[in-house]
Amino acid sequence: MTPILAFDIETVPDSAGIRRLHGLPDSLSDAEVAELAFQRKRAQSGNDFLPLHLHRVIVISCVLRDDDGVRAFSIAEPEHDERTAQDRLERLVNSSLRQVLGSATSSDIISGRRAQLMVQTRLDVEKRAKASRLGIEVIDVRIKRADLPAANLPTVYRRMQTSRAQIATQTRAFGEQQKREIIAGADKEVAITLATAQQQGETTRGEGDAQRTRIFAQSFGKDPAFAAFYRSMQAYEAGLGQGDTTLVLSPDSAFFKYFENGPGGSRRR
């Protein structure tokens, strides 16, 4: 078998050299510096492939195929280890998240438009990674946890407390309204029940009085002397029933005739 050796060189924009070459401030990130360089190159030649002196080689890899099989080798700068690559990728992701989530509300991030925001963030990270010549493909971006800056925590907590206080006030007001409606309904039922009972009582009492009057009338018609005696007893009860009544009468007053003569009512000689 004829041995075959294939090489591949991975480079990234030399952000430090570009910053010195164009006098760019240190406040710009490496990705922003690279994007400015790409824009200058596109304006000059219509493509964004930077001149070789503005590239920084980070990995040289090769694949060797011979009688012993296929083997791969890589040579990288000592300072560009896996952790360095992770840090650069994290910076890209954080920058994209701040840009995408900065215009979204907390409810959108938590539930409302979370899936849509994640797709938008992934596309932005993928674009930034491609522009930075990292040689990676972004498959997915997910938010595992969102921490607020310490300076924002008191404001957020106060907003949460205000929101919960408003909900509690509304709940108490609704409960108070229901309480008043229940009490008003109960009072109405009590009033109706009492009025109905009073009406039925008055009807029954009236029927009883009518029956009593009828019985008395029948009895009085049969025995006038008994009728006179009964009316006198009622007069005695009304006049003397309380026990503290003082009467000034003549001894031979008709008021006392039943005390003197008994139920017959005839004055004794």
Kindly describe this structure.
The protein is mostly helical. The protein folds into 4 domains: 1-80, no CATH class; 82-146, no CATH class; 169-222; 223-269, no CATH class. It has 8 helices and 3 strands. It has helices at residues 15-22, 30-45, 82-101, 106-112, 114-131, 153-222, 224-240, 257-261, and strands spanning 4-13, 55-66, 69-76. The chain has a 3-stranded antiparallel beta sheet, with no helix packed on it. A hairpin with a 2-residue loop joins strand 2 and strand 3 (69-76). It is rod-shaped and about 160 Å long. The model has no long low-confidence stretch (mean pLDDT 79).
Secondary structure elements and pairings:
Elements: E1 4-13, H1 15-22, H2 30-45, E2 55-66, E3 69-76, H3 82-101, H4 106-112, H5 114-131, H6 153-222, H7 224-240, H8 257-261
Antiparallel strand pairs: 1-2, 2-3
User: Ends: how far apart?
Assistant: 170 Å
- Major beta sheet, specifics? 3 strands, antiparallel
Mean pLDDT: 79
Number of domains: 4
DSSP strand content: 5-15%
Quickly give the structural class: mainly alpha
Query: How many strands?
Result: 3
Report Rg. 54 Å
Overall body shape: rod-shaped
**In order across it, which strands form the biggest sheet?**
1-2-3
Number of helices: 8
Summarize the structure.
60% of the residues lie in helices and 11% in strands. It is mainly alpha-helical and 269 residues long.
